[in-house]
Design a protein that fits this description.
With 127 residues, this protein is mainly α. It is 64% helix and 0% strand. The chain is built from seven helices and no strands. Helix 4 packs across helix 6. The longest helix is centred in the middle third of the chain and has 18 residues. The protein is elongated and about 45 Å long. The relative contact order is 0.12. The model has no long low-confidence stretch (mean pLDDT 92).
Length: 127
C-alpha cells in the first residue's frame, strides 16, 4: 500500500476500491462525494482527504472521471461495441450528458472519444 496513504485510511481505501472497481459505483449518475461517503459509512471530509491527499486527485470529479473514462476506454476497445453510440456508453458509465464526458475525456486522453475509439479499433484490426 502506498506510503502517502495514512495507515488509518487503509481500511477505507480497501472499501473504496471495492465499491468502485467491483461494485462499479462510478456508474451511478449524479454520484456525489456525499453519496459515496454514505455508501462507505465514513465522514465526507475523511473520504475527501483520502481522494485528494492520499490518492492525489485534484478533486472528487477528477477521481470519478478517472474510473468512468477507464471503463469507457475498455468499451471502446471491444469490437462488439463498435456500433454502440458513444453517448450510450457514456450514459452507461454514469455520465448524464455528452458535454462533461467529452471534456473529461479530452483532459485525460488529449483526444476526442471518437478519435480514440477510431484509433483503438484500427489498431486492433487484423490486416
Amino acid at each position: 500500500i502506498d506510503d502517502t496513504i495514512d495507515p488509518r485510511d487503509h481500511n477505507l481505501l480497501a472499501k473504496l476500491t471495492k465499491l468502485m472497481e467491483t461494485d462499479k459505483a462510478y456508474r451511478e449518475p449524479g454520484l456525489t462525494i456525499r453519496k459515496l461517503s454514505e455508501m462507505l459509512d465514513t465522514p465526507e471530509h475523511r473520504l475527501r482527504s483520502l481522494i485528494n491527499q492520499g490518492l492525489g486527485y485534484r478533486n472528487f470529479s477528477a477521481f470519478l472521471n478517472n474510473y468512468r473514462i477507464s471503463a469507457l476506454k475498455l468499451e471502446f476497445q471491444n469490437p462488439e461495441k463498435s456500433r454502440t453510440p458513444i453517448l450510450t456508453l457514456a450514459m452507461d458509465a454514469g455520465y448524464n450528458s455528452l458535454a462533461p464526458f467529452n471534456k473529461a475525456f479530452r483532459e485525460l486522453e488529449n483526444m476526442t472519444p471518437t478519435a480514440y475509439r477510431q484509433k483503438v479499433l484500427s489498431d486492433n484490426e487484423i490486416v
